[in-house]
Amino acid sequence: MHENFKSGFVTIIGRPNVGKSTLMNHLIGQKIAITSNKPQTTRGRIQTVYTDPARGQIVFVDTPGIHRAKNKLGEYMVNVAERSLTDVDVILWLVEPSAFIGAGERHIIKQLERVKTPVILVINKVDTVEREKVLTFIDTYRKVYDFAEIVPASALRGQNLDVLVEQIFRYLPYGPMFYDEDTVTDQPERAIVAEIIREKALHALDDEIPHGIAVCIDRMKEREGQKIIDIDATIICEKDSHKGIVIGKGGSMLKKIGSNARYEIERLLEEKVNVKLWVKVKKDWRDSDSLMKNFGYDPHEV
């Protein structure tokens, strides 16, 4: 490894729904973080790894959106996001293309004023606005904070992401690799599979239900002598009335979630899978420390 090799940690922050997971998935060329147009999709810290053998290695930390918490799960998510600002080398802040800076953005600016980490502002979704307007958005944000760089981009279309990677490397320290060259995430397979099932449920269900669901993998085992992985998973919801909706008429909704998840899990594991889903009700689990811990969100990590 040559002496010009750089490596470091980069956190991606922003309000819910601004495209953080889409950006990270696009940069590393693989789907690790789940995406949906519903807020609070990402609930924990997910690390993914971008390696360029000639330049260096970027470890991306995708965090939950910073928002006003309404329950213990919400508090956990906000704490995870805000704590990640201090223990990284670069902060990427994603915003919508707009000349209006709302209360949510001002809250994030307050958090950023407390840290010394270089902040790169990414004005995402520029493919949805007229080009001339982008300069106005840059000007608006330049006045409220001293950014290291401002990069207009489209995570979905992959526009200007090469420039973004170049800017990130400018601010990373010189150092060795943290992970092997072929590592793309520190997430165990079971965790990624659970997240894929949760994503498919988010896509399929009505707005009021997805916040209140979690997914537990009960069993994930290869069949003896066959190239098939059997996956048993339970979808947890908060209310009895939600259970019926998650199952659907004659099990139709559960079937839809399962088959949509199966397609993507097979691409991830590069093997045939058989997915069986169950639904359980755990009332108000988002306000219970012990249940949150059971579903993979440890409040004491924060």
Brief write-up:
The protein has 9 helices and 9 strands. By secondary structure, it is of the alpha/beta class.
Strand fraction band?
15-25%
Large-scale geometry: globular
- Computed over alpha carbons, the radius of gyration is 20 Å
Named at the architecture level, the CATH assignment of the largest domain is 3-Layer(aba) Sandwich
The average pLDDT score comes to: 80
The number of helical runs is 9
Strand order of the largest sheet: 2-3-1-4-5-6
Structure characterization notes:
The chain has helices spanning 20-28, 72-83, 103-112, 131-142, 161-171, 189-204, 240-247, 252-269, 289-294; strands spanning 6-13, 46-52, 56-62, 90-95, 119-123, 149-152, 214-222, 228-237, 272-281. With 302 residues, the protein is α/β, with parallel strands linked by helices. The chain folds into two domains: 6-171, Rossmann fold (3-Layer(aba) Sandwich); 189-301, K homology (KH) domain (GMP Synthetase, Chain A, domain 3), CATH 3.30.300.20. Helix 6 packs antiparallel against helix 8 (252-269). The protein is globular. The two termini are 35 Å apart. 36% of the residues are buried.
Which characteristics define this entry?
alpha/beta, globular, 2 domains, single chain, Rossmann fold, 302 residues, 9 strands
Q: How is the topology of this model organized?
A:
Elements: E1 6-13, H1 20-28, E2 46-52, E3 56-62, H2 72-83, E4 90-95, H3 103-112, E5 119-123, H4 131-142, E6 149-152, H5 161-171, H6 189-204, E7 214-222, E8 228-237, H7 240-247, H8 252-269, E9 272-281, H9 289-294
Parallel strand pairs: 1-3, 1-4, 4-5, 5-6, 8-9
Antiparallel strand pairs: 2-3, 7-8
